[in-house]
Design brief:
The protein is of the alpha/beta class. Among the domains are: 2-57 and 141-243, Rossmann fold, CATH 3.40.50; 64-140; 638-696, no CATH class. It is 53% helix and 9% strand. The strands form five sheets. A five-stranded parallel sheet has the order 5-4-1-6-7, sandwiched between helices. Strands 9-8-10-11-12 form a five-stranded parallel sheet, covered by helices on one side. It has a two-stranded antiparallel ribbon with strand order 2-3. α4 packs across α7 (123-140). 45% of the residues are buried.
């Protein structure tokens, strides 16, 4: 009976079979508090499965814990058994031990007795292996937050139990569950290896609930937690959210080397998203994308940064606001996990706070990077020079140029005329140069305060794309230390332009490992992935004690926070924590794993950017992006594509430099067009781009 059920369980839980049955039972009402209350009114039982219902591992398959064990054994005992060989030995022994148990689950001691009987391995080796395995389970298990909260709440309201087919002892399982925040009552813990019955035969449910008692069970196994519950006369509330999603499956299928890395990338994406208790479909999708796409991409990028910093012998690495906030968080985790000797810091800078101090003479300086665009007003231009329209000199300027209102939008010709006039007017030149000089003194003192001028090589980190922040930063720094640019290096995700005379500039996209990502780079969406929880830096201010601190446009980032930034950052950090925990447990250096990390990042980037699902397009495409330097105008990074023929014709004829559809056209199409038509629309984009180019060059 046990062997038959083992075979049935294995067959039904195969992914394709299980996925099909999951689809069939998807209409079953999910768990609600009212269902539990109805069960409890008749002294019934509400029970939960343990693994992949309350807790889970940051690995694609549970058996990959054996692979981590194999790595640990190799480090301790040398080449007695290779990690992959240990997995085979351990799995085979468990299968034999479970077949020998007619009804009850085999214990871990039974499994290791099978190994001792069949493999010529020293007793010391096997004793260590068993202890390592249990220790790793306790170390790597993660809570499924929403389910743990539900179980703990239910435990205080009525009769609950945890029912599990597992080979761990009661004390070990209690320790594992309590370590994940599950409030365990030992009397309500039913374990197959100790109770002498199993879920897969249905008998363990009878032991837990008693006779003639209503029963509601929540679990993830189609065979044991659904079919066998029905067979035992209970009601099932399936929990399938712990099953790998499409991004997690693709990460594992990619055959990333070493195999444990692929399992860690996939499994950590799953554990990270399950740690968030989503309150809406948007939040749930955002967690999935943050864990399965953003986390792998940014982790690969930061590992590349640290390897390059090590190669260039960087002593201090400054992450530039605001893109650098989440990148710094990731880098700190890696540095702490591996004990790397590099100083990591955050620098509050922006285009607004750097370009003005780098302007030594407005008559001669390059103003192209100030971002003056058609539609700017006099007030907008002056704000970039940190000048208020109420200044007396501005009234005279406005009068001489016959500008009716300082808030009136100007076209390109009017804007060029204004800039030429400012450069030629002595009063305006002196005013702007004085303002820039004052801003420069504050910036230099801020940089000094942050240790920017300390001895050694200095690196700066930003997302990209033109290197102008580094150019302005180097220009200001060289006013204090003329040779500073010789020891300055910049590390970027991508660069379209490399300014000269400001140190070295390297970018991830130029590396061969990042080549598969290049066709899918969409600047604004990649900036959204690195959004910070604070406002942009507008300048600096000096306190009474002489210290200098950044002035922020807003203390927080209300638009991004309303979108779900907290979830994105929380999930990314959880993802990195889990990957690092697996790799350090196995003794794998993440800095030696860049190829595999980049491979995983490329796979999920191609999926999400090149062929997003409707929910992914809605979640990421709705990010509020501000392209202007002063962050005053926000719009969705990929709004739904307009289906109006009139607007399409207008867009084709437009000469304003704006994209035909959006900065992320694939998402805009998917958000607007039904699934069947979205593919056709995406393939027609190339033709539309060609037509627009022809119209522009007529």
């Amino acid at each position: 009976m046990n062997a038959t059920n083992l075979l049935l369980e294995r067959a039904i839980n195969q992914r394709f079979v299980s996925a099909g049955i999951q689809h069939l039972v998807a209409s079953i009402r999910p768990l609600h508090d009212v269902d539990a209350q109805r069960i409890w009114t008749r002294n019934g039982l509400v029970s939960f499965d343990a693994f992949d219902t309350l807790v889970t591992r940051p690995l694609h398959r549970p058996s990959d814990v054996f692979l981590v064990t194999g790595y640990r054994l190799q480090r301790r005992f040398g080449s007695v058994v290779q990690p992959g060989e240990w997995v085979t030995i351990r799995q085979s022994a468990e299968w034999r031990a479970r077949k020998l148990s007619v009804e009850r689950e085999a214990t871990l001691e039974n499994v290791y007795a099978e190994i001792a009987a069949s493999a010529d391995l020293p007793r010391e080796f096997l004793t260590a292996a068993q202890a390592i395995e249990v220790g790793l389970e306790k170390r790597l298990l993660r809570p499924i937050t929403g389910m743990v909260e539900t179980f703990n709440r239910f435990s205080a309201l009525g009769r609950t139990a945890i029912i599990s087919d597992i080979y761990f002892s009661r004390s070990d399982l209690e320790s594992m569950l309590s370590g994940c925040g599950v409030r365990v009552d030992p009397a309500q813990l039913f374990i197959s290896c100790e109770n002498g019955r199993t879920k897969r035969t249905g008998s363990l449910f009878s032991d837990a609930k008693g006779s003639g008692v209503k029963h509601l069970h929540i679990g993830d196994s189609v065979f044991s937690d659904v079919l066998q519950v029905w067979r035992a006369g209970g009601r099932a509330a399936p929990f399938f959210k712990a099953s790998p999603g499409r991004l997690e499956r693709e990460l594992y299928k990619a055959a990333i080397e070493p195999p444990l890395l692929g399992s860690a990338l996939s499994g950590s994406a799953r554990t990270a998203r399950l740690r968030v208790k989503a309150v809406s479909g948007h939040d749930e999708t955002l967690a999935e994308v943050s864990a399965g796409f953003v986390g792998p991409l940014l982790l690969a990028f930061v590992v590349w940064i640290l390897t390059q910093a090590r190669r260039r012998k960087i002593d201090q690495l400054f992450f530039l606001a605001r893109d650098g906030q989440i990148l710094l968080s990731i880098a700190k985790k890696i540095v702490a996990s591996y004990g790397l000797s590099i100083d990591l810091r955050y620098l509050h800078v922006s285009r607004q706070s750097l370009h003005l101090p780098a302007l030594f003479n407005v008559c001669e300086g390059d103003l192209s990077h100030f971002g003056f665009v058609s539609g700017s007003s006099l007030a907008d231009v002056l704000k970039k020079f940190d000048l208020d329209i109420s200044h007396p000199a501005i009234a005279g300027l406005q009068s001489r140029l016959r500008i009716r209102s300082p808030h009136t939008a100007m076209n390109c010709s009017e804007l060029d005329h204004l800039i030429r006039y400012i450069r030629a007017d002595d009063e305006m030149v002196n005013l702007i140069n004085a303002t820039a000089s004052s801003a420069r003194r504050l910036l230099l003192d801020y940089l000094e305060q942050k240790g920017f001028f300390a001895d050694g090589n200095v690196g700066v980190v930003d997302i990209g794309w033109r290197g102008n922040l580094q150019r302005s930063l180097a220009k200001v720094a060289c006013s204090r230390d003329a040779s500073f640019s010789r020891r300055l290096s910049g590390f970027y995700f991508g660069l379209d332009y490399r300014p000269e005379g400001c140190g070295s500039l390297d970018d991830y996209l130029s590396e061969s490992v990042a080549e598969p990502i290049r066709p899918f780079v969409r600047g604004p969406i990649f900036e959204a992935l690195c959004a910070a929880d604070h406002g942009t830096t507008t300048g600096y201010k000096r306190a009474a004690d002489g210290s200098v601190s950044p002035k922020l446009l807003t203390q927080d980032n209300p638009q991004a926070l309303a979108w779900g930034l907290r979830i994105q950052q929380e999930v990314i950090n959880a993802y990195v924590d889990d990957v690092l925990d697996v790799l350090t447990a196995a003794g794998i250096d993440i800095l030696d794993s860049l190829d595999g990390l980049a491979q995983g990042a490329a796979i999920v980037t191609r999926l999400v950017i090149g062929a997003p699902s409707r929910s992914e397009a809605n979640a990421l495409g709705s990010f509020p992006h501000a392209s202007d330097q002063l962050h005053s105008v926000f719009e969705e990074v990929a709004p739904p594509m307009s289906l109006s023929p009139r607007q399409w014709i207008s867009s084709l004829e437009a000469r304003d430099g704006k994209p035909l559809i959006s900065q992320w056209p694939e998402a805009s199409v998917v958000r607007a067009v039904p699934s069947l038509g979205a593919g056709v629309m995406l393939h027609s984009l190339a033709l539309a781009r060609w037509l627009r180019t022809r119209l522009r060059t007529r």
